[in-house]
Specification:
The protein is α/β, with parallel strands linked by helices. The chain has a single domain, classed as Rossmann fold (3-Layer(aba) Sandwich), CATH 3.40.50. The chain contains ten helices and eight strands. It has an eight-stranded mixed sheet, sandwiched between helices. Strand 1 and strand 2 form a beta hairpin. Helix 5 runs antiparallel to helix 6. The longest helix has 15 residues.
Length: 274
């Protein structure tokens, strides 16, 4: 069942499943996606005894559109507000793609709220966009149809059987007023706020990357660079054959990696549930 919190400029939609007394795990999707991107992962985490929260990004899903800003720092603020609303954590935060930048920024700004990070295909460092790349980003994020074509292209492994329904939901959501503009603002964000952030993050971290992720010239090198720059212990798991969405392409392998990590940093029954 959807729930909502008010944040400056709008509201954020989220859903809670699993054991109310279990350790808190928050799953944040990437730009241009819905919280349903975790539909094959969240039930397994809940079944393992965790209190699982899936959230929509501002401007996406059931969250409001029309915010004044959609920068990576705004996403970190939204996650902080959500965690405080849920009892203050500490939580393990799972961030994919764009949220792979908001999650470490949150951990650096609000260390008391975070006990671990799992970053899936993360844009965890500042990015550079030359004029050609900016034009391409604007084009891809100009219409739901073009975004849908690009979204599909990021899958290099098998698409789940329910992928057509999920993609249709993504495109339908993007047709709502203000949502393409929100995604476009995120896509054009070069994330300067992430400069120097990773060394400040001292909680344990897991980086999950598809070996064929087309968003990075060398996915393994990117994952290992992020791990090396983090200020705490970090593990890299490469999902063979996956593109940018290993949690959809290879949900069993991704879930196994997440559960192994969770049992280390937030074991069920350790008395630190939110």
């Amino acid at each position: 069942m959807s729930e909502f919190i008010d944040v400056p400029g709008g509201r954020i939609g989220y859903e809670v499943t699993g054991d109310p007394a279990g350790p808190l795990v928050v799953l944040a999707p990437g730009m241009g996606d819905l919280r349903g991107t975790y539909r094959h992962v969240a039930p397994a985490l809940a079944a393992a005894g965790y209190r699982v929260v899936t959230t929509d990004l501002r401007g996406h899903g059931e969250s409001a559109a029309g915010f004044a800003s959609y920068a990576v720092g705004d996403g970190a603020d939204d996650l902080a507000a959500l965690l405080r609303h849920l009892g203050g954590g500490p939580a393990v935060v799972v961030g994919h793609s764009f949220s792979g930048g908001t999650a470490p920024l949150l951990a650096a700004r609000e260390p008391a709220l975070v006990r671990g990070l799992a970053l899936v295909g993360p844009f965890a460092r500042p990015v550079s966009l030359n004029p050609v790349m900016k034009s391409l980003v604007r084009l891809v994020l100009s219409t739901p149809a073009l975004w849908g074509v690009y979204y599909k292209s990021l899958f290099k492994g098998p698409r789940p059987d329910d992928f057509p329904a999920h993609l249709a939901a993504v495109k339908a959501n993007m047709r709502e007023r203000g949502r393409m503009a929100a995604a476009r603002a995120m896509g054009l964000d070069t994330k300067p706020e992430l400069a120097g952030v990773l060394p400040k993050v001292t909680v344990p971290a897991l980086i999950v990357m598809g070996t064929k992720d087309p968003d990075f010239p060398d996915p393994r090198a990117e994952a290992e660079t992020v791990a090396a720059e983090l200020g705490g212990p970090a593990e890299v798991v490469m999902v063979e054959g996956a593109g940018h969405y290993p949690h959809q392409e290879f949900p069993a392998e991704t879930t196994d990696a997440l559960l192994r990590f969770l049992r280390q940093v937030a074991p069920v029954g350790d008395g630190m549930s939110a």
